Amino acid sequence: MRPVATVGRERGARGRRAATTAALLAATVTAALTAGCTGGGGPGDDGRGSPREVEQGTSPSATGSSVLAVKLDNAAAARPHTGLDAADVVYAEQVEGGLSRLMAVYATQLPKTVGPVRSARESDLELLRQFDRPTLAFSGAQKKLLPLIDRAPLRAETPSSASDAFFRGSGKPAPHNLYLRPERLVPEAPGQAALTTGFRYGSAPAGGTATTSQTVRYPAARFTFTWSDSRDRWLVGMDGEPATTADGKRMAAATVVVQYVKVRESAFRDFLGNNTPYTETVGSGKAKVLRDGRAFDVNWKRGDPKDGTAFTTGDGTPVNFAKGQVWVVYAEAS
User: Fold this and answer.
1) CA 42 – CA 36 distance, rounded (Å)
2) Among 117, 91, 269, which Cα is nearest to 180's?
3) Are 240 and 222 in contact (CB under 8 A)?
4) Distance between CA atoms of 212 and 231, rounded to whole angstroms?
């Protein structure tokens, strides 16, 4: 409104100065939260938007009744990972520039620390619908994606909404050094029953092909799984290097699923203009299940986002996984 008196002009000027000061303060606080606890002043997550701002009291309290899902950085600078070996399920997907990113799902145990944590993607929302209101821990997301995350049936936690649960480590440069203390989000592991993935565990199906190694390639990343008789596990390799944990242990999976899916363009782009791939996990198609040193060609089906994924042989017999950690690597169907 146009001022009509000197007093009005003075009040208006004070109001504008106050608004400017408040805006600058808000920007400073946001920058500090994005940078985390590091004093190096490194870059934020990846230019995909600052962590979501959540009003105090809007996040439901942790009940431990559902899984904890953590989005993990998988750039070379982010490795080795911390706490990844404790996950019940590890999902691998393609992201911008042909690179890869991981989602670790925890139900039967919670490690003290997990990371490095990175940003969420649109595909995550569909994938996580199979769980009952899971907690999703991530560093931030593309600004236009945040409203979709807000409306999703999950509990979203970032450094903005749970600053005491996240911290910056000193061993890696930002943005590859954001870590999570899971117990500050989920007080206790919810247990096996929370893993509503549709996976079945038990004896191996008949048949299969003896296999020593399987590689999945993305345009700028690759995963290799090599069978180890001595460990009775598939040793994990990333981009041609052995994948280890932060304490030097070789990562290994009991079962590996290479799931062939449709990968299409999403409505989102990164700060360089690269389109974010959308991995469709609802539908049906082919998959390869690796367990016990053998590979099984199977079918997969997930009819609804709220459903888990069923894996069956050609005659419809359910396929059992080996007990232990499962890796699901999404590969583009030909």
Assistant:
1) 10
2) 117
3) yes
4) 13
Return the minimum-mean-pLDDT range out of 63-72, 134-143, 171-180: 63-72
Which of 89, 62, 143, 81 lies closest to 253 in space, CA to CA?
89
CA–CA dist 272, 75 (Å, integer): 17
Count the Cβ atoms, other than its own, within 10 Å of residue 199: 20
User: How far does Cα 75 stand from its chain's mean position?
Assistant: 13
**What's at 334, amino acid-wise?**
S
Res. 215: pLDDT tops 90:
yes
Report pLDDT digits (tens) over 301-325. 999 999 999 999 999 999 999 999 9
Query: CA-CA distance, 157 to 160, in Å (whole number)?
Result: 8
- DSSP sequence for 19-82: HHHHHHHHHHHHHHHHHTT-SS----SSSS-PPPP--TT-SPPP-S-S-EEEEE--SGGGPSBB
**Is pLDDT above 60 for 291?**
yes
Q: If you count them, how many residues does the chain have?
A: 334
Q: Which residue has the higher pLDDT, 22 or 66?
A: 66
pTM of the model: 0.82
How far apart CA 309 and CA 92 sit, in angstroms, is 16
